[in-house]
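Weekly sync notes, structure subgroup
Attendees: PM, AL, DS (notes)

Item 1: joint prediction request from the bench team. They want all two components modeled as one assembly rather than separately. Inputs as received:
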Amino acid sequence: MRLPDSFYSTVRARLADALDVRGLDGFLATTPADVAFLSGFFYIATERPVYLWMPREGDPLLVIPRLDEEYAAQQGVTVETVSYFEFPGVVTAEQTLGAALAGRAPKQIGVSAGLSIGAYRALSRALGGSTLVTTDAVAKLRLRKFPEEIPFHEAAARICDEMLGAGRELIADALRRGTELPREDEIARHVIGFGTDRMYADYDLVVYTTKLAGGLVYAGPNSALPHGLPTRRRIRPGDTLILSLGAAVASRFVESERTFVVGEPTAEQQRYYEADQEAQEVGTQAMRAGRTCAEVNKTCLDVLRGHGLGDYIRHRQGHGIGLQNHEAPWVEDGDHTVLEPGMLLSSEPGVYVPGHAGYRISDTVLVEETGPRRLTGYPRDLASNIIEEVR
Amino acid sequence: MRLPDSFYSTVRARLADALDVRGLDGFLATTPADVAFLSGFFYIATERPVYLWMPREGDPLLVIPRLDEEYAAQQGVTVETVSYFEFPGVVTAEQTLGAALAGRAPKQIGVSAGLSIGAYRALSRALGGSTLVTTDAVAKLRLRKFPEEIPFHEAAARICDEMLGAGRELIADALRRGTELPREDEIARHVIGFGTDRMYADYDLVVYTTKLAGGLVYAGPNSALPHGLPTRRRIRPGDTLILSLGAAVASRFVESERTFVVGEPTAEQQRYYEADQEAQEVGTQAMRAGRTCAEVNKTCLDVLRGHGLGDYIRHRQGHGIGLQNHEAPWVEDGDHTVLEPGMLLSSEPGVYVPGHAGYRISDTVLVEETGPRRLTGYPRDLASNIIEEVR
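Output from the run, pasted for the record:
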């Protein structure tokens, strides 16, 4: 499960240009997503620092804990690697980096603004003659996905759609058999297990990411809390339920979320569902190169407001997706980023009616030259998402 | 699943003292663990900031995204709460905080060194007249667990030990039935499901933490990589396997890890196992108030070195555990923290033989006045951890 070498060489060439423009001698990657993006090394983030030095010219250098040496080799990482023994260490990760860079003497080192104050200080002490400067060089590079990344997002999208089907089927099967309906937490475990299993079946080396396959499942009043956790509440006939699922192949994320109704929908359920579906359709179609995130978000949420549901909005239309399940740009009023081909976004307006239920439909959408393309394809119309009671 | 109010009032009184000593007007908590520690509010960490203002005098204030308002209420959070609509927002989280604090005019605000440079800048801009100063006030308070926290760690320890039993039983059952042995990923899913189910069965409101129940399972050569991921490799007779499990109740973490051998151990397996068990026993008994982390770590790892296994060491003896599964202090050569009653530590020396297997035994250990007390109690001797083949 590795991206082709051509991806890494393209990324490095583009980074070198970006550093040149900014007058930086190199970029020091300090987060799992940036390190994976630039080197293909994936690791479990702990307090043990990992640093990837990407000079404008010359060879990259990876600093990892001793613990991860064999794991990096197994992943086929080709970047020159030095290790420190442990955290905090008699010789720290920062000192190890400093010693390795001593002969190379970079003056201006770019870092992400996500770096902690503590790490910034430790690095500044260890890299005596260098100045650390925050830069958006890598953040900008990650905004538009590279062609080599798309198949991985597409693979994750297929798994995610199948997870939705597996969740729906668990409930449908219980209805057919006349057995007890599953609980929220049982459905969550079932679909996550299904997705993880698909991942392991399809790929030789499943690399660590913050999530292989994950999800939230909530029904009835619980679904009105966008960030609650699945509970032991059993699904009941008449329930609205949301399956909010995500998956990542080679840490390329996707989300696919659908709302289902168990049995014949009431007029109320139909109203909220169809308003949300309309907002999602209009908002998704608005995701075109040249428009700003803020404009797209307003176009989408105005559909809900137009239906008199403004009080039931709890969040923006969506967010960027890539090596993180949430990343820039943000499809929200405060983000004026202009959409460009290659950007990958969630489109997920929601309607949350306290005490009743929540309604959310989310696709992962690629902005292409010709318009938006949904990578996730599970049916979105209400008729398809009624889980029939059997009499 | 809430700690008693007495816990929060004690913590606040202790924090006020610590702020007083440091000349700070308050502490601004910016991480999920610090916010949960000080207020009892648990949330899914995303790019949407959560800020908890803890003044030296007066009432705390919580700033959360609109999305989490109902979730906070469900958790019974009693701190005064204001919300901002979304990230990045037309009015940002930082500006919302700034407006709410405008009348209170704190001069010196303590923050954790884990705060990002980006957030530091946004906060500094939004809190005009205030200066942000990094402080260890809360980190120090979290070093020694409070009496009210211990029952939650103990509850997590029981679940963790039972997860080990469930994993072992999955393999033993297949051996008894003569069916195919499970794969690493199947065992991992089984034990995580078991632990999560126990959590939901025992508690009304399971709050979000970075992990409810989790684990790594690796056997044979895979187990020689401390941070690899479970694969689809099936367990085989003769395998060494590690179950590395963790759980958190009310986000109070514990880990319990054991090594098993399938069938009669070879002399080689016995040698590595018993050396690791001896190091774990000696290292655990060394976890006494008054000794430094570095001394304890050396005492522990010297046992492995004494057995000629120094080349197979990949990591320190252990780390602190609390609201995070890894937190200070670090039981490592570079940490000279003096152990005190109330500190909670993992004791987990490991032996990793490339191409053969890994051996690790981990308990979660509470430093008490009278000596170390293991919260986890799964058997540690080799005889108990042989999973018998049935002929």
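Discussion: The radius of gyration of chain B is 23 Å.
Action: AL to compare against the crosslinking data before next sync.
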